[in-house]
Amino acid sequence: MAWAARAVAAVSLGIVAWACLTAWPAVVGGHPLYAVMLVLTAVVGLAVAGLSFVPRAARPSSTWRRLGRVALGVVATSWLVLVAWLRPFPAIDPAPAAMVSDGAVTVTRTATRIELAPTAGPVTTGLVLQPGAKVEARAYAAVLRPLAEAGVLVVVPQQPAGIAFLATGAFEAARTAHPEIARWVVGGHSLGGTVAAMDADAHDADAEAPVVGLLLWASYPADDLSTTLTAAVLSLSASEDGLATPAAIEASRTDLPTGATFTVVEGASHASFGDYGPQPGDGTPTIDADDARAQISAASVAFLTALAH
What we know:
Blueprint: H1 2-29, H2 32-51, H3 63-85, E1 105-109, E2 113-118, E3 125-130, H4 141-149, E4 153-157, H5 170-177, E5 183-189, H6 191-203, E6 211-217, E7 232-238, H7 246-251, E8 261-265, H8 289-307
Parallel strand pairs: 3-4, 3-5, 5-6, 6-7, 7-8
Antiparallel strand pairs: 1-2, 2-4
């Protein structure tokens, strides 16, 4: 079985090397969970490789020993598939350039969130924008920066392993960290919007710092909120989206309040809402990224500005 152990070790180290080489900034700059998973995978892979060269006394096989090897193989394979699948979509230009502080916006980054804060105050409206699945949080900096320039505190959670359902406490953490914010908007891209819809429904009736708006980017709620949600809703979608398809967005109308606004960015795709490159399963955009980004930013600014008055 030494050859099998060495094969598993080689695949383990190959996945770690591939993830690091293709997404290094997202691995080291994002939430530490995925980096820890890669380190653990590499350590175990090296240990398995080393042990495969240690001579062992022959022992008679048994049913339990064979079952144990099969179970261990299934666990190892599942773990490696998960680690490979969780490899993040790293941010590409112009997102990194939007992460620089200037006279209008101060940018801060921690292990759990990115903040774009207006330098001029007072700031009374905040937005928590949940990234899409596996998308590096920085990828939204360029499209969100105009919102900060318009006077909105923008918080982008750095999700554990890039999964929004593992960052369900992000809104409460942002609200606790910023007691000066009188009203909040929650939003998200793709899976992030689904989690944001849950936050909106849970906190729109709060006595202090309530959620007054839900901003959906190529997303829709998992449950029917049509009769429970009181926050204003803007659903921004893309005509060429191959993931949150136009048909799916249209079907979500019945799950949102009748006053929800639906706006389609013609020619944009699912990945047009961030700067992280093409996404498997997505459609092909027919407008350039700058045009799509400008339309998404402008519609979002108008939505948040209206809620601030």
